[in-house]
Specification:
With 306 residues, the chain is mainly beta. The protein has 5 helices and 21 strands. The strands form 2 sheets. Strands 1, 2, 3, 4, 5, 6, 7, 8, 9, 10, 11, 12 and 13 form a 13-stranded mixed β-sheet that branches. Strands 14-15-16-17-21-20-19-18 form an 8-stranded antiparallel β-sheet.
């Protein structure tokens, strides 16, 4: 039951009503923007009806398009020119987009509430609230008719709804053709898990599966010429190794540790953002990459693994 009576609501009642509003409308179009202090804005465009959902996420590197329907989920990553397809088995996935769901309001009740204004927000009648504590300030804008949060600002993060329609034009919105140049990956588990024998058949020469002292948990096919192997140690995820017939040229070389390596083949050490190291080597014409799945795994552990 929503709080308040007639058209008069206290700031606490407005937030309580927004906190209880979790039901998305049957159909909508929402245009929103996420701004993190010091970073570029991310723009989101979302459409939904009873059977379809689409979201475009637009950043400087390009856009990511996801379209959901009861049959399948399709995601296209423009900057990588990769399409990911999986089976929805007759049920559309419930996307979490609604700011009322995304932001937890329960921890706001210890703050002091103030209704600042009731001006329109992008054409919609809205309540403008300010919530303050000893060392915190939160700004909220709440739609008067739907209790939808139209703007949220807390610390360095600001999210705002630019446009909100409950009866949009869906003509052509859910149509999308993957570029012919894109790499298409089918993510359904049953289609992508391989046995060691099946993985070997993908390559023209023998591959090293490195199963000594480690549990080879599963092998996944990433493409026609690349597989990923997940290893466990002590019944927990440990490292991931990929094997491909072409070399990955997207990582940046870091040769500080190469002199330590006296192994069966030349090993290179690369560093990814976040101080994550990757060991790569070539053997029998195939290219290998090994990186930690457990954050406690060190470079020395990776060296011991191979």
């Amino acid at each position: 039951m929503l709080f308040g009576c007639q058209t008069q609501f206290s700031p606490q009642e407005i937030v309580a009503n927004a906190a209880e509003t979790h039901q998305q409308p049957d159909q909508f179009y929402i245009e929103s923007k996420i701004i993190y202090e010091g970073e570029e804005a991310i723009n989101l465009f979302e459409w939904r009806n009873q059977d379809y959902y689409r979201i475009n996420i637009v950043e400087s590197l390009g856009q990511t398009v996801t379209i959901e329907n009861p049959e399948q989920s399709l995601t296209y990553l423009e900057d990588e020119n990769i399409a990911l397809i999986s089976n929805n088995h007759g049920e559309i996935v419930d996307e979490v987009h609604y700011l009322n769901d995304f932001y937890q309001l329960d921890d706001l009740y210890d703050l002091d509430f103030k209704l600042v204004d009731e001006d329109e927000w992008n054409g919609r009648d809205a309540y403008h609230l300010l919530l303050e504590g000893a060392d915190e300030q939160v700004k909220l804008v709440v739609d008067q008719s739907t209790w939808m949060i139209l703007m949220w600002e807390r610390g360095p993060l600001r999210t705002e709804i630019i446009k909100f329609e409950t009866n949009p034009d869906f003509d052509g919105v859910f149509d999308f053709e993957v570029p012919t140049s894109a790499e298409v990956l089918h993510l359904d588990h049953e289609q992508n898990v391989l046995t060691p024998e099946e993985a070997q058949q993908l390559f023209s020469s023998d591959v090293r599966l490195l199963t000594d002292d480690y549990e080879l948990w599963e092998i996944y096919v990433l493409s026609e010429e690349e597989v990923m192997l997940e290893y466990f140690k002590d019944q927990s995820p440990y490292v991931v190794m990929t094997i491909g017939e072409t070399q990955n040229d997207t990582v940046v070389e870091n040769n500080e540790l190469i002199d330590q390596l006296e192994l069966f083949t030349t090993v290179d050490v690369y560093e990814l953002p976040g101080e994550t190291f990757v060991l790569t080597f070539e053997d029998e014409g195939n290219y290998y990459e090994v990186f930690a799945e457990d954050a406690n795994v060190t470079v020395d552990d990776l060296i011991a693994f191979i």
